[in-house]
Amino acid sequence: MIVVVKNGTTERQIENFCDWIRSQGIGTHLFHGDFQTVIGLIGDTMKLDEEMIHGLDIVESVKRISDPFKSANRKFHPDDSVIDISGKTTVGGDIFAVMAGPCSIESEEQILEVARAVKASGATMLRGGAFKPRTSPYDFQGLRADGIELLLEAKKETGLPIVTEIMSATHLPLFEDVDVIQVGARNMQNFELLKELGKTRKPILLKRGLANTLKELLMSAEYIMAGGNENIILCERGVRTFETYTRNTLDISAVPMLHELSHLPVIVDPSHATGVSRLVKPMALAAAAAGANGLMIEVHNNPKAALCDGPQSLTPEQFDDVMKSVSCIIDAVKATK
Amino acid sequence: MIVVVKNGTTERQIENFCDWIRSQGIGTHLFHGDFQTVIGLIGDTMKLDEEMIHGLDIVESVKRISDPFKSANRKFHPDDSVIDISGKTTVGGDIFAVMAGPCSIESEEQILEVARAVKASGATMLRGGAFKPRTSPYDFQGLRADGIELLLEAKKETGLPIVTEIMSATHLPLFEDVDVIQVGARNMQNFELLKELGKTRKPILLKRGLANTLKELLMSAEYIMAGGNENIILCERGVRTFETYTRNTLDISAVPMLHELSHLPVIVDPSHATGVSRLVKPMALAAAAAGANGLMIEVHNNPKAALCDGPQSLTPEQFDDVMKSVSCIIDAVKATK
Amino acid sequence: MIVVVKNGTTERQIENFCDWIRSQGIGTHLFHGDFQTVIGLIGDTMKLDEEMIHGLDIVESVKRISDPFKSANRKFHPDDSVIDISGKTTVGGDIFAVMAGPCSIESEEQILEVARAVKASGATMLRGGAFKPRTSPYDFQGLRADGIELLLEAKKETGLPIVTEIMSATHLPLFEDVDVIQVGARNMQNFELLKELGKTRKPILLKRGLANTLKELLMSAEYIMAGGNENIILCERGVRTFETYTRNTLDISAVPMLHELSHLPVIVDPSHATGVSRLVKPMALAAAAAGANGLMIEVHNNPKAALCDGPQSLTPEQFDDVMKSVSCIIDAVKATK
Amino acid sequence: MIVVVKNGTTERQIENFCDWIRSQGIGTHLFHGDFQTVIGLIGDTMKLDEEMIHGLDIVESVKRISDPFKSANRKFHPDDSVIDISGKTTVGGDIFAVMAGPCSIESEEQILEVARAVKASGATMLRGGAFKPRTSPYDFQGLRADGIELLLEAKKETGLPIVTEIMSATHLPLFEDVDVIQVGARNMQNFELLKELGKTRKPILLKRGLANTLKELLMSAEYIMAGGNENIILCERGVRTFETYTRNTLDISAVPMLHELSHLPVIVDPSHATGVSRLVKPMALAAAAAGANGLMIEVHNNPKAALCDGPQSLTPEQFDDVMKSVSCIIDAVKATK
């Protein structure tokens, strides 16, 4: 960590600061520029609070040299993590993961029909929303526990592992037979929930918040990993910008950047990011071309009557077309390596 | 709600859409422009899902005419809400509310000393963090239950009502004697938490999320109000932008805009917004000038050793100065009315 | 255009407003909802100023139904535009355009070496900066007129059409033999410059501003087209967000969205968008997969000593590798259609 | 400047880098952390290009310690600059500057009527748009040269110095008798224009771009000052965010922050920032309370018929009320010092 000292700071003040730092087992190293004095802090600075130091009277600015994430950091774990999904499939290895299904589970008929269709097209997991985070309290909030029941039925029939979102740690008992627990964008920094998930050993699909940096995403992964659960799948799903034609701006560059920073697998959700079904295909292809480990795609047997997020859903036929095209892109990407 | 129909849509398709809308007890009204056909939906469209309609094949765009919030809406409640705080003070009426205290509660000595100081300077409530949302799992997470105990002691001694943040509904029993429960920016859309708070009758201080619109803030208030708890205090605390000199960008225009949209009181937190203690005073004055109903300000008896968020804390002396200046501004604002 | 009238507006006021609108040759159509009155304006509303109407006392909000761009609008020109580049190549047709070269032209040796290299790898045009927009007045500002001379030499030797940026209309005479004139992100709304470019018939490469919406990009294209120059190539190059690992956030979804809105070709600049050379390849592949009509890529024969923007430049060897990979992706995309 | 070296870099590579830096007359200072090596660059690093160094293979990250602006920097000019306006008034000293007038000049009658009214209410300068930057080529583009003529008439009659916007350096001759030349937000990084303005000695009102940081604003001021013109007035006018209720988000914290970074005066434009006339008063008061040196406010004698930007204009009566209130706030602010 590098600390830039304010002009006008006395030698005595600098000495005091360095003493305090050294008392925490961290070394200090001073050097004087023409205009400014800088202190290098050497050692395990992960335990120092950057903002606290920044707030000291004598400090002009602070720069953290080492990344603040450890367990998620590729520097300490050079090999790609491969997340095992109930022994049936993986995310992060050779298999390109595709989690497909409806935004909201609505009925037995619906979820079974979609599950069969996406399996036939090559999806590796079934997704479906039971608990739904909705901006308005007046919107449909999901079938909740009943939705998970229906999802488990579909799992039983098709053999597809299932992915569904959790909104409160108190619901955890309902997720016992769920294969992958999803943490939604709005809960990415619900730290109490992250800590509880760290106590489980379930694969966690962690979505990037609408206004969160990649560093914050990795720090949230770190919360779960610090509890002992290293089965994390990162998910880029778009960030909030000023653009209004798309719901959010899908940050595809997050894929190679996260791969550089971390060993955790990265998937992309083009459905929520754009909010427009006709953009799902091009963005799915772009994500695959950029090296994503998989996709999460909304598929609905009757998007026009879907109880939520209809606009971005594909029909099973459209999904089948996307899968064929994605497969061509993946082959091309492999050929380029 | 106004629905713009895509070019190329057949009369039959439009007819089907209108039938479906009318089957929900909502009227339709068609008109044809030179280039485009538009359908007006008339009635209680609050129950319609804008995004779902937007997703229909025949729909080019949708515009909601009425605001999607009802209980929080000034249109239906023209008079300012005045929130009673345990019979000791109010927020939203004639009293300018000032919630002051340390970011984190650290010790009995600290919280008592700060409590006495801020009371002497005219604060109307004591704030202090027991549960702390920190980006990193390696940072200090707060004294938690012990912190609330210390806060209650300070309340007992000074008589100041207390404000502290909740991070999980499972902690609610610990908040029984807390006067105002704070929902932090990162939990503004933790809907399961909001629903639980809707079941209480405690005043809730709801902070705007870092990347949330005013409409979303009001929708989150609506979640709590829909549960029957109408004691909501809104808090502007800065939004995330590209600017890096300040931690966030304090959106002071949110104050008059929220007053126009809603009857709920609005306070401002200049400490977290800027992250720089020397900006707290000018921004506190600006907030008061813009018509805020109060302020939340961090005060620490020893900011340099604070375990968290030190940079933005004021000393008791600085806080006293801010209070005197704010008081001049409030008098001036009253004189201008 | 749809105008939502404020509650409390009198019949008389509405009548006056409608008269004023009709006096401009535009029809009006009233309808009354349960809570709100709405007026539909029918006709050539392109000439109405949305913000001006929004400012009227009786108006609560305004929604433009038709897009405000006409010449650039796919609705009125369903077929893709193919821009001819001096009879030597095209952008927007079957050819995948690749403009490659150094950020800044530094010397004859440099530009010739790079030109030969990128031609050998399959670039269809040579790019190079002569006039450089730099944030600091103390940074290298480009070779200016001398840079264009060197570029023309490289054109002569290699036969590659050349692309270079203009920063002021007063420099136009220097661009006589330039094949494509680039308008940089910071000048996207330099309307006086756009008007002057509208008087030429040169192909214009119009880059999206760092904080500009797609609608604003198309309105800037419209400025040039309104002058009679329809040879516009749009370029996505990343938008400004809160993320700091990448310089900007490349908005790949702009590619299919612009293709839907407009008939103009769309290329992508992954070099400037990310500011990180090791992200250029994955983002180039992503852009190709999403359907871009081409790429603009920085190539430098010695990136480590480049006078500007070195970090994002590729070596000729790296560029050759990117070209081979992009070609695989393009074949795959064609196969998916 | 601090350079963090990538892991795996050889001693030889570091040596080469340091040699190259030293060859530019800048000292180097190495220190080795547990995980990372850092090089301090000591001397006049203003001439080094941060991004170029960041792009070197061996470099992980770069931090500039000294601010890249020099002439605008308060460190080197501790006293507030006071800008003289044609000997008639000042900006930055004891006078609170108020520039008021219509967004667009429309007629002799209009500008004279507004000029007389704003003078009577205490405005210190008259503003009016002759050249108008409009997003759409189909919107009113201003009276241009004729508008400046009308403004000069109003100046003659009222004695008020005048402020108007320039959009191209080729128009400079028309600005000979203009007292303050305004550079609009969209031209803040039109560097060729800034350079030309640096050759004049006219006071320049430099507006912050919609997506520009304070550092970039100061670098643009630096462009003008590097040419020898030190008469710069900075203007905050809102930045682009995701919020939609207001046109832009007025960043009031820019006022105290710019005062800390620079000696140049700072004014605020609440009219354009919010785009809503009823927010102009509270935001004007907030700006004054935060320590702004002045305001720019739109006033129109008939806002409902204004040819542009009507919604944010005040009537002369409303402006008079704002002036009275602002005056109360300024007195209160003085009392607090």
Q: How would you describe the oligomerization state of the chains in this entry?
A: homotetramer
Which percent band covers the strand fraction of chain A?
Answer: 15-25%
Q: Spans of chain A of 5+ residues with little confidence (pLDDT < 50)?
A: none
Provide the spatial order of strands within the biggest beta sheet of chain A.
7-8-9-10-11-12-13-14
What does the radius of gyration of chain A come to? 23 Å
The largest interface is:
A-B, 52 and 52 residues
Number of helices of chain A: 10
- Total number of strands of chain A: 14
Order of helices and strands of chain A: EHEEHEEEEHEHEEHEHEHEHHEH
State mean pLDDT of chain A (0 to 100 scale).
Answer: 90
* Cα distance spanning the termini of chain A: 37 Å
Largest sheet of chain A: 8 strands, parallel, barrel
Helix amount of chain A, in percent? 25-40%
Shape of chain A: elongated
Structural class of the helix and strand makeup of chain A? Answer: alpha/beta
Outline of the structure:
Four copies of one chain form a homotetramer. With 337 residues, chain A is α/β, with parallel strands linked by helices. Chain A has ten helices and 14 strands.
Question: Secondary-structure blueprint of this entry?
Answer:
The structure is a homotetramer of 337-residue chains.
Chain A: E1 2-5, H1 11-22, E2 27-32, E3 37-42, H2 50-54, E4 59-63, E5 83-85, E6 89-91, E7 97-101, H3 108-121, E8 125-127, H4 145-158, E9 162-166, E10 180-183, H5 191-199, E11 204-207, H6 214-226, E12 232-236, H7 254-261, E13 266-268, H8 270-274, H9 280-289, E14 294-298, H10 316-335
Helix pairs in contact in A: 3-4, 3-10, 5-6, 9-10
